[in-house]
Specification:
Blueprint: E1 29-30, E2 33-42, E3 45-52, E4 57-61, H1 62-66, H2 75-88, H3 98-111, H4 130-134, H5 136-143, E5 151-155, E6 167-171, H6 172-178, H7 180-187, H8 194-201, H9 205-213, H10 218-223, H11 237-241
Antiparallel strand pairs: 1-2, 2-3, 3-4, 5-6
Bound molecules: zinc ion (ZN).
Amino acid sequence: MNERYYTTTGKPINSSIPLGAARDLTGQKFNRLIVVQYLGRRGNAIYWLCLCECSNKTITTSSNLTRNNTTSCGCYQKERVIEACATHGATIGRKIPSEYKTWEQMKKRCLSLNNPAYPRYGGRGIVICSQWKDSYETFYKDMGPKPSSKYTIERINNDGPYSPENCKWATRKEQASNKRTSVVAKFYTGSKTMKELGAEYGINHETLRARLCKGLSLKEALEYKKHSRHKISPRPKNSANSGGS
Ligand SMILES: [Zn+2]
């Protein structure tokens, strides 16, 4: 089977480039990871499929392996977080903090091809900034604690990355009302992206997004004429929310 592999930022790895003269790491062990298979290249980076001691598989680069940047599939870090929580008495017993679960789920949505949510995240180009991808500590430092366990991570621009600039803690209810655009996105999922649609109608996709955020329907947003100077007034919440059904 010719499986397609992706970098941690969701970019396809070019499997047609041979390893060539580069160092073959197959079979070598780096901390918890055993290198199983050469996957290909992207830019200067050489990618490997690795098997972790915990039996998870993970993809990383030669330089991450040899520089000790990647020491496990993520299980090592998880254990350290649990230990830290136990040490600081922040949680009862060995309960995993809610922020950690969010971080872990975010990574799965964007990076695990077999995650059910992957097509709506990693699969459509939603990436995690490298500082967050590799470090829960940095993620927690940037995001801070959740106001309560009802909060979850929201991307302010729904097509943007998971990064400090584009993320905040929000309740599900807040997210639903902020995601009128995602109702529209759903409308053409599988057929067209915002970019493609914008290109087709000769509208910059950011402009299109801005119009949708102001509450215009997809049709209105696409047919909105530049020369009509009247202000776009937001549609009443109810009608906007019922647009998807
Ligand atoms: Zn592991």
